[in-house]
Amino acid sequence: MIRHILRKEFTDLLRDGRFRWCAAIVGVLLLVSLGSGFVETRRAEAAHTAARETARDHWESQGEKNPHSAAHYGIYAFKPRLPLSFLDQGVDPYTGTSVWLEAHRQNDFLMRPAQDATAGQRLGALTAAQVLQYLVPLLIILLAFGALAGEREQGTLRQLLATGISRRDLALGKALGVAGALALLLIPAAIVGSAAITIGSPGPAATPFARGTVLAAGYLAYFAVFVALSFAVSAWVRSARTALVALLGIWVLNGLVAPRVAVDLSKWLHPTPSAVEFARTMEREVSSGVPGIERPDRGETTARLLAEHGVETVDDLPVNVIGVYLQESEEFANQIFDRNYGDLWNRFERQGVVHEALSVAAPLLAVRTLSMGLAGTDVEQHRHFATAAEQYRRDLMRRMNGDLAENSRTGETYIATEDTWAEVPAFQYDAPSLGWVLRNRTLSLAMLGLWLVGAFLVAGSLVRRAEVA
Amino acid sequence: MILRTVLRNEWRLLRSDRALGLVLGVFALLFAYALANGLAWVNFQEQTLAVAREGNVERVQSLEAELQRIADGGRPSSPFRDPRSPSVLGGASGAQTAVLDPGPLTALAVGQSDLLPYYYDVSIRTNESSFLQNGEIENPLNLLVGRFDLAFVVVYLLPLLILALSFNVLSGEREQGTLALTLSQPVSARGVVTAKLAFRAILVMGLALGVSLLGVLFSGGFGSPGRVALWCAAVAAYALFWFTLAAWVNGLGRSSPWNATVLVGAWLLLVVVVPAGVNITAGLLHPLPSRVEMITAQREASNEAVNQRSELLARYLEDHPELAGGVAADEANRAALAWAATDAVNRRLEEVTSVHDERLAAQQALVRRYRFLSPALLTQEALLDAAGTGDARFARFQSQVREFAEHWRTFFVPAILAGEQMTADVLPALPSFRFVDEQMREVRARAAIPLAALGGLLVLAGAGAVVRLRRVTGPH
Where are the domains of chain B? Predict the structure, then answer.
């Protein structure tokens, strides 16, 4: 019996001009956004790969100089695009794309693409994720709002139930019909998406298929929540019109109101300092230290080295005091950077948790966080890259200061050979594993699961009690 | 006379309709919430700028104290930071923070003010790469989503309120069977619809404009009445567009559910799909020029500059006899050499940047053209421009900071080249930055384009509505 209902619902939907139009629009938008995202990601990644090579080339061919001058010259790191970022560009336009790794300081990521875009472009980018998060649920609502309320209004619900089918089976059949109609739209998109992943992008490999599978499952769960919600409302309210209005209300709350409320709430709960304040604090702490993190003193370093080696003058030391002192200063400053940047990043992450927690009112917030996480475009993975870049900087400085300390003596003019630069390994970034991403996103996963179970339970209960007329 | 009766009747109906009252109440809350958010943001910006201004004063005071101490025979606290040296005094230790006060109506529209920098530290080190800096510290996730401000409520949610109130002004009467009765009076369908919509428009616009003016009042924006007027005009034009569209759809003579579907579809298309579609088209057809190559060019320039410092100085002095003040290249001091290299890098950067900026401006002009496809985009532009949080005001700030940096350089560079030392006497004469805000005339001229386009759309929808409503005679 369910099969009959399913087939009837499915055929009805296919014959319905409204559905055909809406599905065509959403389908085209989905395919176009997938395609353009793919092209854009490859373009950006190609540009970054080229820039990365040039940056390395600059570093290696900087000529003979003192290692500390080389440290000041530094090197630029460019943020790679992960293979799945074509599905969801996430926060990428709002994080910088490159960072200068130089002596003495941890720099901010610069060049946010959004800063070069117009205000109008902030109203929304059309990525595949955006289509899946906003437009597909809307399509589901349009497909399903009248499923029960419409039959009831037309008086056909009584006839249907007279055939002996249970309300539950009727609703299930209809829901599967809706799912079948959606599949017509989603399966081609999934094929295009998988093809894009197979062709791949030159970025760091990050288990794209595993990530993609979980992503697809997440979105399916999100759609299922909307199907269940639509049936619940359709069973509950008297007229199809009321069902539509109520569901559109839910859609607006879910997609428009809740995300922005989350922004304000997160800022209110976990305020971040202004850039001026942040820079001031850092400057103050770097110049005079904080309790427990004392600024190294060159005199003390010299005295200690003299004592360690049991010699009287710096000329007798087997190391260059400047090199040792510079490295100690680096290590001191690193602790200050860790303190300040660590605090800032932690605040960002706590703000992210507010967004996730608010998904209790709007499933979009859960699926969006999950989607960005799997696409590798969330704040946490930006931090992951920033941390890796900073570790590379620290290693680079350690090598430069070590070279200065070991290969020269205090006070002498030391010029390192050109090979010194090529001996430094190139910056290699490994994207985090799927497990790492999912561990970060447990709250979103739980919320999505909760919504799925909750929506189905509520839908089941409302459908069972649905009135005939 | 009859119209007044219609209006009075509507008022009674509204008061007895609980659901409608609830919707209006919810919107009043949303407006209040949005306003509170905007005011909090302005407050944050003002506090931040106060800190920045204080920093300017403190830096000058500490330099003054240090210079005084040295003049009295003391030694500079660090040989690298001797404030008598013009490259130190004009460099990071004497840097001045140039600030942009929040736009007069920032409390109403946060706009680009959370993304674009509203203060820069200016010193002789300022060059084109200084303008690559980020704006205020902000979670990228929050930047992505955007703020819940009045502009958001107006652009996204207000149309929904309007549609909920007016999708059935005529179809509802027909479905209840009251249309025939109404039209039997000496009144046309057009008159009835106009009266009913006018009543709703007064309510909705009263709410939207009332809250806007309240926001202006709280944030002291009445100093720029022209901007307030522009804001109100944009809100009113946008709201009227949706009312007129509703009138048109009602004039088509279909059922209420049909009207609702079509109007919600129009909202979705114009407010959600088209702006996103514009983005994707812009991204594909007019890709953003990459900033990455700027870094490459900067590096190459600095490599060259370091390698040929003394040569550069000779060339620099030839190029700038006015700054050299009689310094010959062979008596060059270290600071002068360093400056020549810096200047060469800056010149090269300016070249690269100007090419990039031209491409960016062309790209943005192309992208901006698409705004005519959606009243939401037009309204957003007009609202941000009125508020002073749009792209134009920030671009103006940046170009003034650029000029100021040039001014700052011409103050210090001759002294650097001449190897002069500075004293506390120069401190009162230091250049200081003051943002010259846009003239109302400029803002009006800029906002006239989206407003005129919005007006055009309004007239179009209005004409459609008039034509259709004229044909409405009674129940079919």
Answer: 1-476
